[in-house]
Amino acid sequence: MSGELLDVVPVMPVVVLERLADAVPVARALVAGGLPAIELTLRTDVALDAIRAIADEVPEILIGAGTIVRPEQAGQAAAAGARFLVSPGTTPALLAAMADTGLPFLPGTASVSEVLAVLEAGFTEMKFFPAEAAGGAAYLRSIASPVPEARFCPTGGVTPATAADYLALPNVGCVGGSWLTPAAALAAGDYARIEALARAAAAR
Ligand code: 3PG
């Protein structure tokens, strides 16, 4: 799937779930809003079960696992039904573990040296994280000419206001953000709000 992960949706919802019960309704709201993909972060106890539930009950969404920070999490996420993997940074062990699953994945990068290391390993699609803090759209614009092979999903501090700046760059396929699933909307079970935020983002 390399070469395609960045082209599924213009905005990748980065989702942090505290309650397993939100998993399926959130996935359905994102699909209804026109964003049929999720990077579900492995930051909470329910994350793997949430991936399993979405994979079982909302097969039309491309469910991925984010915040892969330890090699063993790659296989756990794949076993739960994740169809792609995302890490905030890259180590040789993480890269090997993600590649071993056979799934497409976005290894995290924040510097030219890290980008070159990922390219050397044979992968051209990556996450740029934390995007705003690491230099934002200006940084990615600066490296497009010297390192044209690399394509990015910038994530971390991206907002509806800055998304367009990134998406206009030749080396950006999509952006990622948590603004589509705000903690307050999740706490209130306000899935209509999530659907509306997805619809606005999908219209880009
Ligand atoms: C991520 O893991 O990609 C980030 O936590 C998402 O960043 P954001 O919350 O600033 O959108």
TrEMBL record:
Q: How does it assemble?
A: Homotrimer.
Origin organism is Nocardioides immobilis
Q: What class of enzyme is it?
A: lyase
Name the pathway.
Carbohydrate acid metabolism; 2-dehydro-3-deoxy-D-gluconate degradation; D-glyceraldehyde 3-phosphate and pyruvate from 2-dehydro-3-deoxy-D-gluconate: step 2/2
This enzyme catalyses: 2-dehydro-3-deoxy-6-phospho-D-gluconate = D-glyceraldehyde 3-phosphate + pyruvate
Q: Which Pfam families match?
A: Aldolase
**Gene3D superfamilies in UniProt:** Aldolase class I
Protein keywords? Carbohydrate metabolism, Lyase, Schiff base
Q: Which gene encodes it?
A: eda
Reply yes or no: does the keyword Lyase apply: yes
Lyase among the record's keywords? yes
GO terms for MF:
2-dehydro-3-deoxy-phosphogluconate aldolase activity
Full protein name: 2-dehydro-3-deoxy-phosphogluconate aldolase
Q: Which family does it belong to?
A: Belongs to the KHG/KDPG aldolase family.
Q: What is its EC number?
A: 4.1.2.14
Supply the source organism's classification: Bacteria, Bacillati, Actinomycetota, Actinomycetes, Propionibacteriales
